[in-house]
Amino acid sequence: MPGATFALVHATLLTISGPALPDSTLVVKDGKIAQVGGTVPGGMEVIDAKGGYVTPGLIDLHSHMGVYPWPDGRAHGDGNEMSTPFTARVWAGDSFDPEDPAIPRARAGGITTIQVLPGSGNIVGGRAAVLKLRPSRTIGPMVFAEAPPAIKMACGENPKRVYADKTDDDQVMSRMGEFAMIRDKFTEARDYRVARAGKAPPDWDETLEVLADVIDDKVRVNLHCYRSHDIAGWYRVADEFGFRIVTIHHALETYKVRDLLAAHGTGIATWPDWWGFKLESWDGIPEGPALVSNAGVPVATHSDSASHIQRFNIEAAKMVRYGMTEADALESITLDPARLLGVDKWVGSLDVGKQADLVLWDKNPLDGTALAQKTWIEGSVVYDRATEGVPSGRR
After folding, report:
1. This prediction's pTM
2. Are 116 and 63 in contact (CB under 8 A)?
């Protein structure tokens, strides 16, 4: 129920922001973390979590759940508005189906927050929707109100594949064309912003408004990009127009240019072991995320899959297999994605005052056999294995 108050006792608290606390207590009051450690205040519900582990709710900042809902089909695959390379005006939330059966299964894997992104068919694909996975018939109650605006951009093979055969002015068939078009569009947005402040402002243009906000760092840029030379090229554009690339997604060659990412304050969202499925993913290596993390760059594990999101803790465990510390691997599914979304003030670690998005596990979540037993969002139970088992997706 909203504003729930209870105490979890005898659990190992994986705080993320500090050391693990064995056989400890976590107190939730009115949907927020009120106490970490210590004794239980009188007069509240007590949940004995002996032998269990408590983590913050897991965060996936690259999801297409709801915009490509199950069952898969062209009729309701609504994640890509591929009518022009620049669709900054669209919002992923307008396609989102809250009844996607993948959503309760994600909660059963401990996921509490997702960033739903448009697809990567466009150079500028549209605005993201940052959501809490509350059970809901409509998207409104799911919107993470504190999350700042964010946008999806893309480069390389995907926009080339979509637009190379078009014969109108939006044709682009090479990386040269992609970079020329993005420079043209940002130049137009910069000029538009100046003109709008003048005595004879041009008509309001939603796409240029959004891109002007990107230049002003009012919108967080999520860039789908694999290859190191593409990454360096996008930094040339960002430096020229004065905006920040907050997160590079997929990011399989970022290990080659991790110094550039560190210098630009960019994080990555990536898989532990997907590679080779197309040419621009060929140089991915499983040790890449650990190399990037060791350079001081925030690394978020992402799913990009309605199946992988159900076992997100195992994706993080793979990061350990390929060189990450356990602490960094847990951070890659909690606090680092919270930072990259701009919501780390509210979620991502077990700290007093943060929203009580929590997961109770039967064992250390980096154990490949671990299962989430309960998931809470702001103190409200959204999944209970004892009563739900494996969710069917029905409400």
Report:
1. 0.96
2. yes
